[in-house]
Design brief:
The protein has 292 residues and is of the alpha/beta class. It is built from twelve helices and five strands. Helix 3 links the parallel strand 2 and strand 3. The protein starts with a helix and ends with a helix.
């Protein structure tokens, strides 16, 4: 059951990059969730939205709004205590990033959505809808697993939200790099990193790391996505700044949306001895020890 939960998480979190980026929006009041801009952002003209709650979050000298929404067209609600957990996870994700780099932040809306298919089958997943330097919407499917302890279900949920919240950070600071389809290798790997830093020791994520170990000898980091959390943990242990520097150094022009361009940018960014050091740290099982 745990492995099927992870499978749901990984598949549902993959959201195609938007075709266009919106002009930068000032960080003020959240946008009307029944308006045309919001509906276009989540690709749903049928949403009948109402706000359930909101809170203010201060990150350095920036203040943003976190809000929980409800779509009256869908039978989707968060379990008791999960709204507070979502706000906590977004806060942790933002604070980890802000501690290491001066970054831009914006408003975030949490929108529970209906999980289709076998409702008795555990499913917990997140999708982030983003359009550059504008409000970010995190849609969440939550069907807890009866075979897993309630505290483990909740921890999995927090990890997912922290992961998705960093996609928001990526969109506000590196939207052009993120918009390229070839960016999945760093987009998902760095988001999993922040999720694990927010909730260290997350047991379900260790299963993903085991899956990484099975393919690490056959595939490069450019051929993986979520499994790259191991590489990004290693990079973070060298210096957290290097993670953000790597993202900033990636291709940002649609004309260079290819894995060959990603590979060239990665090789240009890393010191020549970095691959050997990473391989030695991995084979010596020293990556997570050095990253705490």
């Amino acid at each position: 059951m745990l492995s099927s939960l992870i499978f749901s998480v990984l598949l549902a979190a993959m959201q195609p990059a938007p075709a266009i980026l919106l002009p930068a929006q000032p960080v003020g009041e959240p946008i009307d969730c029944n308006g045309a801009v919001f509906k276009a952002q989540i690709f749903n003209d049928e949403v009948e939205c109402r706000e359930i709650s909101r809170s203010k979050l201060k990150i350095g000298d920036q203040t943003v709004t976190l809000r929980l929404l409800h779509d009256d067209e869908e039978d989707a609600d968060l379990p008791p205590g999960y709204a507070e957990a979502a706000f906590e996870a977004v806060t942790r994700s933002f604070e980890i990033a802000a501690k290491e780099r001066k970054l831009n932040f914006h408003n975030v809306s949490i929108l529970p959505v209906e999980a289709y298919g076998q409702r008795r089958e555990a499913r917990m997943s997140g999708v982030t809808y983003w359009r550059g330097k504008a409000e970010c919407v995190i849609a969440l499917e939550v069907v807890t697993a009866s075979r897993i302890a309630p505290e483990d279900n909740l921890l999995m949920f927090k990890f997912i939200v922290a992961h998705e919240a960093f996609h928001c950070v990526q969109s506000w600071n590196w939207s052009h790099q993120m918009a390229l389809e070839s960016s999945a290798w760093w987009r998902e790997g760095s988001a999993d990193l922040i999720g694990m830093l927010a909730y260290p020791g997350f047991t379900a994520q260790s299963k993903v790391n085991q899956g990484f170990a099975e393919i690490a000898d056959a595939k490069s980091v450019l051929q993986m996505d979520y499994g790259n959390v191991v590489f990004f943990h290693w990079l973070w242990s060298q210096s957290p700044q290097k993670v953000f520097d790597l993202i900033a150094a990636m291709p940002r022009d649609q004309a260079y949306d290819s894995m060959a361009s990603q590979e060239a940018a990665l090789h240009a960014f890393l010191p020549k001895d970095a691959p050997a050091k990473y391989a030695a740290a991995y084979r010596g099982a020293r990556i997570f020890a050095s990253a705490n």
